[in-house]
Amino acid sequence: MKLANRILGVVSAILIIAGAVVYALNAPMARLLLVFGVLGACLSALRLWLIQSKNDALTFNRIVGYLAFTFIICGALFKLLYIPGANMLLVIGTGLLVMQFLPVYLLLDLSEKKTTEPEKPLHFAMPPINEPVEKEAIAEPVIKGKELDSLAVPTMQGLIIVKTNEISHCEADDKYTRIFVDGKKMMLASQTLGYFEDLLKDSGFIRIHHSYLINLKHLKNYIKGEGGQVVMSNDVVLDVSRRKKTALLDAISNPN
């Protein structure tokens, strides 16, 4: 999804630049290039904007905000290019912006941002339910040798506790990390992939790509290639970089 969004953004930028050049040269197709470029940029912005949505109300408001800005941008573009309907688009966009998006954004979105600061992931023991909870059991990480047993992952909704052996792989998402648990659930953690690589390097995890950290316990098979690919227990296929190939094969051949 992230790669597709980047491609869309690059293509949109190329269309906008090409449209501006063609328009300056008074050549045909300038309006079409500019319109498609702007629409592509708006769609790319929508995908990036909604990925961090916290709840349904904010998601709906962000969609309304996206539509408002899209109408305003397209209206301004249509007016510049003398395309009919420019005034209508500007009126609709301004109305959505003033009557819906800005009030909800100022009341809900900003206030929620102030109360949801990212927390650092914790790793600690999960004491048995029927036994008394001791401070030492929570304060110290669970280590079997050097292996972590449990992980508390900070998300936008709060801390989610998972067992490390249930994590199939982690995927970088800019300054965040997508953590996949048993192939059934994905959570977005507010730490980089490098953080989790350092945290889990002694727990059977290995970095196979600048975007991927995998749990060797969930590795099904390796597919040969320049860097190759791995198939995980949830049937997800991930690329292996050439630089990481040797380390991965060594880890597979010589498990600890």
Helix and strand topology:
Blueprint (H helix, E strand, L loop, with lengths): L1 H23 L5 H21 L5 H25 L5 H30 L19 H5 L3 E2 L2 E2 L1 E6 L2 E6 L3 E7 L2 E6 L3 E5 L3 H8 L4 E5 L2 E4 L3 E5 L5 E4 L4 E3 L2 H12 L3
Antiparallel strand pairs: 1-2, 3-4, 5-6, 5-9, 6-7, 8-9, 10-11, 11-12
Helix pairs in contact: 1-2, 2-3, 3-4
What does this structure look like?
The protein has helices spanning 2-24, 30-50, 56-80, 86-115, 135-139, 193-200, 242-253; strands spanning 143-144, 147-148, 150-155, 158-163, 167-173, 176-181, 185-189, 205-209, 212-215, 219-223, 229-232, 237-239. It is 48% helix and 21% strand. It has two domains: 2-115, no CATH class; 135-253, Beta Barrel (OB fold (Dihydrolipoamide Acetyltransferase, E2P)), CATH 2.40.50.1020. The strands form four sheets. It has a five-stranded antiparallel beta sheet with strand order 7-6-5-9-8. Helix 1 runs antiparallel to helix 2, helix 2 runs antiparallel to helix 3 (56-80) and helix 3 packs antiparallel against helix 4. The protein is α+β, with helices and mostly antiparallel strands.
Helical percent range? 40-55%
Q: CATH class of the largest domain, please?
A: Mainly Beta
How large is the share of residues in beta strands?
Answer: 15-25%
Which structural class fits the helix and strand makeup? alpha+beta
Rg from alpha-carbon coordinates = 24 Å
